[in-house]
Amino acid sequence: MAGVATQKATVPGLAARMAAFRSLGGNCEFGFVQRYCGAEPSGLLRFSYTPLDDLIDALETRFERYGAPSDLVLAPTATGVYYCRSRTYNIWSNTQRAVAGTDHDALLEREYGRVAHLKARMLADLATGEKILVRKADAGQTDADFQRLAEAVWRHGPSTLLRVREAAPGSATEPLRRTGDLVLEGSVRRFAPGEQAWDVELESWVALCDAAYAAHAGVAPAALATAPSADAMRLPHGTARHKGRHRERGLSAFTKLLDTTRFDPAKPYVFSAWVRIPAHALPERVFAVMGRERLGWCDADLTIRNRWQRVWAAGRVGDGTDRPCVGLGLIGDAGDRFESRDWHLREGAVPDWSAPPPPEAMGFFARLRDRLGG
After folding, report:
1. Of 213, 220, 239, 243, which sits with the fewest C-beta atoms within 10 Å of its C-beta?
2. pLDDT tens digit string along 170-185?
3. E strands, 211-363, where?
């Protein structure tokens, strides 16, 4: 038992584990995954889109012309944000600066400095091979295409590559597998929509990255499990019944205010609960609420009725003057209802695994209502 405790003690937390990865520029999605887990590593391609052939060219030429005089140009997008484009390598980086109110020349000068600094850091990381490099599988990408990318990376040093696929609709995610000495492959439930890279499927991303981290670091996956911890605040654990509060369809909230002095404003916290929607209810949405800045989440699946399912939301409490809240929300009318139980609020980006409540937790009167169709 002492050996197990020692191993667990040496494994860093989720934010530190996510900082061990670097994006290879498929798009901004993995950068948001890291942000939602509390990690903000600086990376040359973290919030960038780079076509595969251009990325291979950049790697083979050590990014020599990236950020050279006249290489960078600022391009306004339909979303009102500046992207910085490399004329040479077709690298598009999200500056996260709005076009309105931004000094074009000052931002361009900043981008030249950013590229010069992060390019040197990336080449150093590639040389040591210490980071796990992440690339989503592009549509139509072949194994030969990915092999060309891997070989371009390995010209610099022995980096491990994580190739991420999107699971087929309705299919389970593929478990992580090693397809080469320095190549890992796995899948997430879905990729973020094209222009909404922030809309990530966080749970499967975290599960995949933790499996890759364990394989790369040579630790047992079980050593990465979150240690049991007390709730961040007292919340109800027994079964509660909720019903819509409005005659017309609208939002009904079942929440508690958070005392922001008890939380670190920079850290993500996750609220989870089990909910059960009866067959006769027709809500538009049943969901979890956590803090001001919503990060990951999982709403109720409205096709699942008469059995428990978990909903959750992760967020930060922030440090503003108004008090944020935590709890559940229903979009529906007075005829819509659901039950909840086992509310938990803990530090983290995704909830700990927990077994669903036993059927008897539904309560006698709830079961009777279901039988009578009321």
Report:
1. 220
2. 888 989 999 999 999 9
3. 240-243, 250-257, 269-276, 285-290, 293-298, 309-316, 325-332, 337-347
Q: Give dist(CA 124, CA 105) in Å, integer.
A: 29
Give per-residue pLDDT as tens, 68-113.
Answer: 999 999 999 988 999 999 999 999 999 999 999 999 999 999 999 9
34-66 b/e (C-beta count within 10 Å ≥ 16 → b) = bbbbbbebebbbbbbbbebebbbbbbeeebeeb
**For range 330-347, the mean pLDDT:** 93
Say if residues 43 and 91 touch (Cβ distance below 8 Å): no
Q: Specify the residue for token string 């499967």.
A: 204
Pairing type for strands 160-166 and 132-136 reads parallel
Note the pLDDT tens digit of each residue in 251-309.
999 999 998 888 888 889 999 999 999 999 999 999 999 988 888 899 999 999 999 99
CA distance 195 to 286: 25
How far is Cα of residue 93 from the mean position of the Cα atoms in its chain?
A: 19
Q: For 10-19, how does the pLDDT look when each residue is reduced to its tens digit (9 = 90+)?
A: 788 899 999 9
For 130, other C-beta atoms within 10 Å of its C-beta total: 15
Distance (Å, whole) CA 188 – CA 201: 7
